Amino acid sequence: MAQMPDGEIAPRDGLLPASAALGSAERTLHAYLHIPFCRVRCGYCDYNTYTSSELQGVTENSFLNNLLREITLSKNVLEALHSEQRKFSTVFFGGGTPTQLEAEQLALVLETLKSEFGLEQNAEVTTEANPDTVDERYLNTLADAGFTRVSIGMQSSVSSVLKILDRTHNPENVAKAVAAAKSAGLQVSVDLIYGTPGESLDDWRESLATAIDLDPDHISAYSLIVEPGTKLARQVRSGELAQPSDDDHADKYEIAEQMIAAAGFDWYEICNWSKSPATVSRHNLAYWRSNDWWGYGPGAHSHVGGTRWWNVKHPSAYAERLVASESPALARENLDEAAKATERVLLELRLREGISIDYLKSINPQAAKPISHFIADGMVNAEDAIRGQLTLTLKGRLLTDALVRDLLG
Ligand SMILES: C[S@@+](CC[C@H](N)C(=O)[O-])C[C@H]1O[C@@H](n2cnc3c(N)ncnc32)[C@H](O)[C@@H]1O
Ligand code: SF4
């Protein structure tokens, strides 16, 4: 996350190679907006986000103006590429803490996307939210503007765990935010983290039970990653906190599956469960299925037709580019067929619907061998394999990375 890939220097006009237009009729278009502000930084987080003292004079207002400039630039770049302009199927505001901005400011950005591109009918429009930053008025304003979904950073309900994570939100505000979002008519997702040093299995069960009691539409559960350069990494290195163990993560993943499924949710991606097919995150599915998306904002990544690029990281560098009417893209790369295939296996195997065995054999003629081992070891579903689809069992979900390595040979 903190590290940017290398790539080639991106052109200052942001124009894309003609190859990026190929096959675009088969792909949907999505918008991600990166809002790089947080009131305080949580000890485990290495996202591209800044507290006020780190912003080098960038204000929320100036940032917003530059975000709108990038939307205009994206329209020009995509118009130069395609004869027919696509509307956005989904929009996702992430961060950082998008809800650090006023609701009216988020609404203005959405309005601009609508007027420049248009949204597909029934478009999904999500914002991430820190529970301390939203109330009824805020969420009603978002719903009135066309937002359909809010994803709330709950992480845990256990105060000792929240403390180790350095979370400053008041756990009681999670229930308030969920209730306010529901009364505004928004779909609700909650994010949880498991495997925090010192978190017992019972602590994790308590967080899951609390999340389930909130009756959200969707739950995401992520294992805590110790990201290099974070306060958490320093605490683990110095021995102040224990390194989270793979066994603890696996036990907690199994508990999550058991409790969340028993409450009527189905997994549709390794870390994501939904109450119904209507409440899956269509935005995230678009990434996993390698559709096209424009990532707006500092450090945001984009992908259009096999060309991937990423923006300059700091909000002040981002501002400099856009004020000079230049693209904020720092570098880019064109994925060759082998890279595209690797990525497709990595992403699609994570989905409940899995990946076609014929496709796997087409990219690796030796794939039949590991597949028969996976079936024998109960890591993939035998019945699905007979009908030509490789789908993971719970055991396989715990070992996805190893399976991907074997499949790619
Ligand atoms: C940008 S944050 C969500 C919005 C808001 N900033 C908040 O934290 O409430 C996205 C999610 O990433 C997850 N996340 C961030 N750093 C992580 C890490 N090191 N390991 C696991 N999950 C992490 C958290 O679950 C968090 O809710
Ligand atoms: S987890 Fe969310 S609130 Fe905490 S620093 Fe990261 S982006 Fe900000």
From TrEMBL:
One of its GO terms (biological process) is porphyrin-containing compound biosynthetic process. InterPro entries: Aldolase_TIM, Coproporphyrinogen-III_oxidase, Elp3/MiaA/NifB-like_rSAM, HemW-like, rSAM, rSAM_sf. It holds the Pfam family Radical_SAM. Keywords: Chaperone, Heme, Iron, Iron-sulfur, Metal-binding, S-adenosyl-L-methionine. SUPFAM superfamilies: Radical SAM enzymes. Residues 23-266 form the Radical SAM core domain. Belongs to the anaerobic coproporphyrinogen-III oxidase family. HemW subfamily. PANTHER family: COPROPORPHYRINIGEN III OXIDASE, RADICAL S-ADENOSYL METHIONINE DOMAIN-CONTAINING PROTEIN 1, MITOCHONDRIAL. This is Unannotated protein.
